[in-house]
Design a protein that fits this description.
Elements: H1 3-15, E1 23-26, H2 30-46, E2 51-54, H3 57-65, E3 79-84, E4 88-89, E5 95-96, H4 103-111, E6 113-121, E7 134-138, H5 143-152, E8 157-159, E9 161-162, E10 165-166, E11 174-178, H6 186-194, E12 199-202, E13 204-205, E14 211-216, E15 219-224
Parallel strand pairs: 1-2, 1-3, 3-6, 6-14
Antiparallel strand pairs: 4-5, 5-13, 7-11, 7-12, 8-11, 9-10, 14-15
Helix pairs in contact: 1-2
The structure holds ribulose-5-phosphate.
Length: 236
Amino acid sequence: MTQDELKKMVGDLAATYVKDGMVVGLGTGSTVKFMVDALGRRVAKEGLKIVGVPTSDRTAAQGRKLGIPIKAVDEVDQIDLTIDGADQIDADFQGIKGGGAAHLFEKIVAINSKRNMWIVDESKMAPKLGSFPLPLEVIPYGSQQLFKRLAAKGLHPVFREQAGQRVLTDSKNYVIDLHLGQIDDAFRLAQYLNQQVGIVEHGLFLNVVNTVIVGYADGPKVLQAPERPNYRDLKA
Ligand SMILES: O=C(CO)[C@H](O)[C@H](O)COP(=O)(O)O
C-alpha cells in the first residue's frame, strides 16, 4: 500500500466516528484531507448534519466546498470530537504537530474539544519524540533575537522556508523548527518553550489525544490513550 492509501484508509475510518448533530474539529494536513472528503461524502449522501470547526484556512476552504457548515471556534459552545493528523506520536501517546504550520489553531481547537482523535500512517509512530523537527510559531518582531537564544541553548533552530521565503502561518507569524534528534523530557521542554517571549505556541501536544488510528499495510489499528486531564483544566 502507498502512504496515501494508508492515509485514506485511516481518514475514511475516522469519518465513521462522526455522528449526527456533532460539532467536529477539523484538523489540517494531507491525512485529514481524506477524512474531510469522507465527511463531505456523508453530508451529501446520508444528509449527515454536522458543524465543522476548521484549524486552518485550507481546511475551511475544503469543508465549505464540500457543503460542510463551517463555524469558527468562538462561534460554538464546545467541540464534540476533533480529528487531526500528527507528525510524530510516541509510545506514551504524546505528539508533535505543526508540520503543516497549523499547530497554533490546532492546539486551540484540541483543548476546546471533548475528545481528540489523531489519524496517522505507521511512519508517524516512534518510541520517542524528536526525530521530527519540533515546530514553533513565533512572532516576527524580535524573532532573530529569539532564534539566537534558542541556538545558544543548543536547540538547533532553523527558520522554515519555502521557495526561498520564510513560511507564514495563517496568523502571519514565522515558524522555527527545532532539530533536536531526540526529546528526553517533553514536559520539561514544553515548560521552557512556554516561558519564552515571542513563541506563540510550540508543537508539543502533551496529554491531548484520546484515540489514535494508525494505518498499517494489513489494516487500521485503533489505539486508546490513557485518560488524562485536559490541558485547559490544569491548575495554575
Ligand atoms: O500538524 C499538522 C499541521 O500543522 C498536521 O496534522 C501534521 O503535519 C500531519 O500532516 P500530514 O497528515 O500531511 O502528514
